[in-house]
Amino acid sequence: MSTASLTSGLVTVRPEAEPAPVVRAEAIKTEDSKMGATTTPTEKAAKPPKDDAVSFGTHLGNLARKVIPPLVGFALVIGLWALVAMKSADFPSPAKTLDAAITLFADPFYQNGPNDQGIGWNILSSLKRVAIGFGVAALVGIPLGFIIGRFAFMNSMLEPIISILRPVSPLAWLPIGLMVFKAADPASTWTIFICSIWPMILNTAQGVQRVPQDYLNVARVLNLSEFKIITKILFPSVLPYMLTGIRLSIGTAWLVIVAAEMLTGGVGIGFWVWDEWNNLKVEHIIIAIFVIGTVGLLLEQLLLLIARRFSYGAN
Asked: Which of 67, 102, 264, 311 could form a disulfide with 184 if both were Cys (CB 3.0 to 4.6 A apart)?
């Protein structure tokens, strides 16, 4: 049969067209030759995209901006410290303090009697006093804050008392504790209690007073009990304010316990600092300053983490 078109009745037979795959292959080769590409599709997929490199550089720059400024700040503090140590023979240098810290933390939980214990036992004793005083303050202060914020009569009655007692120095309460409890340990705990209760009361009361009145109107229409109003409406709304008061209170409590223990003696980081001063071990006092600051920072960051977990903006 010839390649020309043959017609038989209504049926027309046309010549076969060229295979389409050959045309597509030639087109691909033409595009590759224009682009000058000699790599296979697998090799092209293996090349990392440029966006990854840009993203890595951005993350590296953000990390550097977060890390470098604190390092520069610590370097300046250490430099000033070394300069002061060079001018004063009695002030320990950073290197001498580091050697003392290595020796001190090599065995932080040794015991050679009631008045000679490692720094670890002193920190735990201080944390125990803070936990007891702070816990009792939370049990008393948070419900009292709800009462003050919820009832105008209680607010008017207790506000002038709180305004008078809150500015009093925490150490002014220590002699009262010694007189009442006749012992140094509960007197220190009492001082923690009385100084850490005010932020919890005030912040909780402020949170209750800032609850929208519409919520309370709905509760009144639904005839909810006071218990359900507190648990279902007030508590979720007041929780961020309450956690802020708790965070402020724990910082105050840790600040006060050091001063209280210096005056009362016994076992604790404050007493340890005063005892090391009496022994003229200034490098141990500097170590204690860093330890006290680190523990206080960890306590505050822990409460900040809890506050973010329960805040409305948390994911």
From this structure: 264
Task: Supply 71's token pair.
Answer: 């390092």
Whether 76 shows a pLDDT value over 90: the answer reads yes
Question: Which token pair is 227?
Answer: 């218990």
CA distances from 136 to 104, 112, 143, 162, 197 (A): 33, 33, 12, 18, 9
* Diameter over CA atoms, the chain: 127
State the chain's mean pLDDT as an integer. 81
DSSP 8: E
Closest Cα to residue 144, out of 132, 159, 129?
159
The answer to whether 186 and 177 have CB atoms below 8 angstroms apart is yes
How far is the C-alpha of 167 from the C-alpha of 176, rounded, in Å?
16
Instruction: List, in order, residues 6 or more apart from 54 with CB less than 8 Å away.
Output: none
What's the predicted TM-score (pTM) here? Answer: 0.72
Listed residue (275, 251, 247, 277) closest to 261, CA to CA: 275
